[in-house]
Structures are given as C-alpha cells and as structure tokens.
Write a structure and sequence with these properties.
Belongs to the aldehyde dehydrogenase family. The chain is α/β, with parallel strands linked by helices. Helices cover about 35% and strands about 20% of the residues. It has two domains: about 280 residues, Aldehyde Dehydrogenase, Chain A, domain 1 (3-Layer(aba) Sandwich), CATH 3.40.605.10; about 190 residues, Aldehyde Dehydrogenase, Chain A, domain 2. The model has no long low-confidence stretch (mean pLDDT about 95).
C-alpha cells in the first residue's frame, strides 16, 4: 500500500484543509485513518479548525468572482483535464478507496470510473446550459431566461462512496461556474486528500484561481458551520436521515438551498412471472455489495407467495457461496464494515429482528481469526420478517436482508412504499402490465424505480435521488445541473414605446 500512498501524495501526517492549490495546516486535533480491511493505521490527518475553515471560505469567495467569468466551455475543458488525470490515477486511487473504505477492489475501481464518467458528462454539459425564450405579450419586447452560477457550493459526503458522490456534485458545479468546499467523512479522509492532490496538478497547470476547489476535513462541527454559513448558498449533504434533517433545518432557517441524499430502505418485488435466475443475481448483489453499505442496498425482498419457497431456497443456497474477506482479493465477494461502531449496529439490528419475531434463514455473526483481525467482518444475514416490524422500517447500514410474502401486486407495492424512505426500488417480472403498473403514478413512490435490475448500480446519465425521508435531492445526470445555478428572467424592450402591464396608463 505504501506505493499507492506515495503515488497519490499521501504522507505519514497530512494537513486537513486546502484551497485547491495550497495546503493549510488544519490547526485542529490529529486523527488516524485505520483500514477496516486489516485494522492497520494508514496515515494521520490534522483536522481543520475554525481559522482554517475561514481561510478556505475567503479564498473561495475571491475565486468565485474570477471563476464565474470563465466561459463555460473553458471551465469544461479544465474538467476534461481532471477526467484525464483521474484516468491516469485510476489504479492507485481505486486501491486506496478499497483499502480505506473496505469495499471490493472492483468497486473501488468502479467508483473512480464514475468520477471519470461524470467528468465526461460535465464536459458536454458545459456547452448546453440552455435557457428558454418566451413570447412577450407586449409588442417590441423579447423575453428569455438564463442561468447564472450560485457561488460557493458546500459538499458534505459520506464514507461509503468517499470520492464518487463528491465528484457528482463538484464537476457539475464547476462547469456551472460555482466554486466548491468539500467536507468529506472523517472516516475516509485520505481518499479526499488524494483527490485534492490530483485536482491541484490540473489547476496549477491551468492557472485556475486558488479557492475553486476547497477542502475542510473535520468532525460534525465543520459540517454544522457549512450548514449555517450564509456565504454558502447551496449545501449538498449525503448521509443519514438524522444528519440530513439537521442540515436541512439549518440551511432552511437562513433561506439557503439544500440538496439532500439520505437514507434508503430499498425493496425488490419478485413476481410469479419473474426470471428467477436474473432475480437471484440482482437480489444477492444488491444486498451484499459494499457489505450492505450503499444507500441503494437491497434491504427487503417482497416475494409472491406462489414462488416464495422456491426463491427462498435458491437465495439461501446462493448465500452459502459468498466469500467474505480482504476486499483487495478479487476472489472475495464481501468485505468489512467501515468500523466497529457499524458492527455494533449490525448486531443490534439482528437482536431487534429476533425480538420482534423474525426468523433467520441465514444466520449473521461477527467473524474472527486469521484474516479478520480488524473485527469489522460480518456474515451477510437473511431473515423472514413482517412489513410492520420496527427494524424493517429503519435502515441498517449492513448486509441484513428481510423477506416477506405478498399475494397481489397492489399489496406488494403498498408494502414497498410503506416505509419512511423512498430512494430506490425494483420489480422482477416479465409481465408487461405489472412492469408498467409498478412505474405508474400508482406504483413505486421512490426516486428510482427499475424493472428486471436491482436497486443499486445507478448510471450517471440519470438524475440520482429519492423522495420522503431520502431528502428529495437530485444529483448527477439529466437536468440536475439546474440545482447549482440561479434562474433569471430577462425582458428587453427594443421598441420606441413603454407599454405597461395589463394596459395601465401612466402618462407624464
């Protein structure tokens, strides 16, 4: 791993704040980043204090005044170069993501590929920030709308996607003319430092103003400062519903904007008309990928009663084939949870499910012994449960899958929608009527609804986000770029008269 750290500019001790091209001594306490893979310390980081935060904010304000005047295609070309740099560093950055977060190596590479993809998307977008023209009711007048950058965008990201979600926001915000300040999870700070080093190379080569790409690594207090700072018109926050409610309330109190990507409690409906071979792959990957630590992880299976027993047995057999271990070994399917706190939550969820009457078909448990020294490896578990169980209504960030039966499609949709969260959903069916009903306004109430694929694996071309307690935000593709801009309606009078609205006469 030392060669990976060296390639990405990670030192034994690292500053926790940056203006994009200059590192700032954080001034706060020093923390260590430990890998959940083997429990070893990777490196240390000095967290940003209030003074460091203020320096980053002020540089961002200064940079915005200049950056917003760059033509959007020029900003896009710089983002294109960022994409090229990420291609160059894909292997070491992907390995660091895998090692510091604990996801599989292929998922680590995949996350960096998402960053590259969003750069490509943003480059094209830089020439397509379109407004509309409207016909005026007044002769000799023209109306149109245009979009302007907002200013500073604060980005609060979570540990489970330590680099990709930041890039979804940042690359779009940059081509829109905004500057960004990133507060990554303190559980994965080295991934953020590596990204900052990669970006710095590109920015210095292009003489980009210092402050366009800010970084402040800190604990919850830094996130609170971002949420309450009136100098930051938009705060994009990814994390738990509890965190999102606090951020949303703070930003709303100052009439700022928030883009919230919060918890998911995602379900797959398995129809009697499903292709069970496809369904089993989608369900198992959705449930155990990233050790159940995705916001789009499959947490509930709603199975038609006529095929319930057959599918249950097929699922249990598939779980017996799972290999749990070092995620950098591509022969393994499941890596560790992020830390021992996550393991405790996993254990509590299993106990709660049993107390409510759940029956485990695949028992969970914490693994120990050779290869599991970090104490963060757990067994993916499967339980039969009821939709009304309190534990089923909540998101547990771990590989626990709940099974339940249904009789009619209407019942299945009601069960799927009957949770506070509304991120991702899926139905496995070859029945066209079922598929269309699931996608109709009377179907899934989630921001993402799929047919014959699982709940995870969103592509950057579509807007990503959910409803209800998932927060309502949209990131990445489609027209998500509008979130990072302000709309302005313009009217131009090119006539020799000044007609007033509604025919009002005001002669002087």
């Amino acid at each position: 791993m030392q060669d990976v750290l060296a390639a990405l500019g990670i030192k034994a001790s690292n500053a926790g704040a940056s203006t994009g091209t200059q590192w700032i001594a954080g001034g706060g306490k020093e923390i260590s980043s430990f890998s959940p893979v083997d429990g070893k310390e990777i490196a240390k980081v000095t967290l940003a204090n209030e003074e460091a935060y203020e320096r980053v904010i002020k540089k961002a304000q200064e940079a915005f005044a200049e950056w917003r005047m760059y033509p959007s295609p020029k900003r896009g070309d710089i983002v294109r170069q960022v994409g090229e740099a990420l291609r160059k560093y894909k292997e070491p950055l992907g390995k660091l993501v895998s090692y510091e977060m604990g996801k599989s190596l292929q998922e680590g590479y995949g996350e960096v590929q998402e960053m590259i993809d969003i750069c490509d998307f943003a480059v094209g977008l830089s020439r397509q920030l379109h407004g509309l023209t409207m016909h005026s009711e007044r002769p000799g007048h023209r109306m149109y709308e245009q979009w302007h950058p907002l200013g500073i965008v604060g980005i609060i990201s979570a540990f489970n996607f330590p680099v990709a979600v930041w890039s979804w926001n940042t690359m779009l915000a940059w081509v829109c003319g905004d500057v960004c300040i990133w507060k990554p999870s303190e559980k994965t700070p080295l991934c953020a430092i590596a990204c900052q080093n990669i970006i710095s190379e590109v920015f210095q080569a292009n003489n980009v103003p210092e402050g366009v790409c800010g970084l402040v690594i800190g604990e919850a207090a830094i996130g609170e400062k971002i949420a309450n700072d009136p100098r930051i018109p938009l705060v994009s926050a990814t994390g738990s519903t509890r965190m999102g409610k606090a951020v949303g309330a703070a930003v709303g109190a100052r009439l700022g904007r928030s883009l919230l990507e919060l918890g998911g409690n995602n379900a797959i409906i398995i129809s009697k008309d499903a292709d069970l071979d496809i369904a089993i792959v989608g369900c198992v990957f959705g449930a155990v990928g990233t050790a159940g630590q995705r916001c789009t992880t499959t947490r509930r299976l709603i199975i038609h009663e006529s095929i319930y027993d057959a599918f249950r047995d097929k699922l249990v057999a598939a779980y017996k084939q799972l290999r749990i271990g070092d995620p950098l070994d591509q022969n393994n399917h499941v890596g560790p949870l992020i830390d021992k706190g996550a393991v405790e939550q996993y254990q509590k969820a299993i106990e709660k499910c049993k107390a409510e009457g759940g029956r485990f078909l695949v028992e969970g448990g914490v693994l120990d012994g050779a290869g599991y020294e970090s104490g963060c490896y757990v067994k993916p578990a499967v339980a039969e449960a009821q939709p009304h169980f309190e534990i089923v209504q909540h998101e547990t960030f771990a590989p626990i899958l709940y099974l339940m039966k249904y009789n009619t499609l209407e019942e299945a949709i009601a069960i799927q929608n009957g949770v506070p969260q509304g991120l991702s959903s899926s139905i496995m069916t070859l029945n066209l009527r079922e598929a269309e009903s699931f996608l109709s306004s009377a179907g899934s109430d989630c921001g993402i609804a799929n047919v014959n694929i699982g709940t995870s694996g969103a592509e950057i071309g579509g807007a990503f986000g959910g409803e209800k307690e998932t927060g309502g935000g949209r990131e990445s593709g489609s027209d998500a770029w509008r979130v990072y801009m302000r709309r302005q309606t313009n009217t131009i009078n090119y006539s020799t008269q000044l007609p007033l609205a509604q025919g009002i006469k005001f002669d002087l």
